[in-house]
Amino acid sequence: xxxxxxxxxxxxxxxxxxxxxxxxxxxxxxxxxxxxxxxxxxxxxxxxxxxxxxxxxxxxxxxxxxxxxxxxxxxxxxxxxxxxxxxxxxxxxxxxxxxxxxxxxxxxxxxxxxxxxxxxxxxxxxxxxxxxxxxxxxxxxxxxxxxxxxxxxxxxxxxxxxxxxxxxxxxxxxxxxxxxxxxxxxxxxxxxxxxxxxxxxxxxxxxxxxxxxxxxxxxx
Length: 220
Hints:
Elements: H1 2-47, E1 52-59, H2 67-72, H3 74-79, H4 84-89, H5 92-104, H6 106-115, H7 131-142, E2 145-151, E3 154-164, H8 167-219
């Protein structure tokens, strides 16, 4: 039994020595690979383009935010049997949803990217006459413009964001895009308001004609 024990001990020592030798021989390879990947990671971090994000918060408006518009149609309010059609246009939650919808719309982003003077700085060296290049350029920037819920617990607070290669550019682009969407939403609201007013005027005119006809029938 003692021989068996010695043999077992001897075998264990050989295996341990071989293992140590293997690790020692391989440690230089491990170190080399570690250095290579560290250098690659460092080079990528140094050479990769850094993107900055500018954000702004938007919430549903208050009644006073639409007072100036309401004042312009005060006389119409006075003669309407049901002013709900007008009030619905100025509903704060509806206006917020309209704004966010326009902000995230593909067409809105595309129109801005193609028309904004600030975006021209990013088109240098890109042949936008090439359909594929133009599509790639537009789609890459569309992903950098977003409006998302600030919190799932409050559906009336959104974060607006725009990414760019510098913090100043990100701020300027977000500011310009917010103005761009403001104009779109305002034009849409004014157009809807004009359409509603025109419809109500037609109804009032029809009532006027009915009363006039009724008055003539009484006098005849």
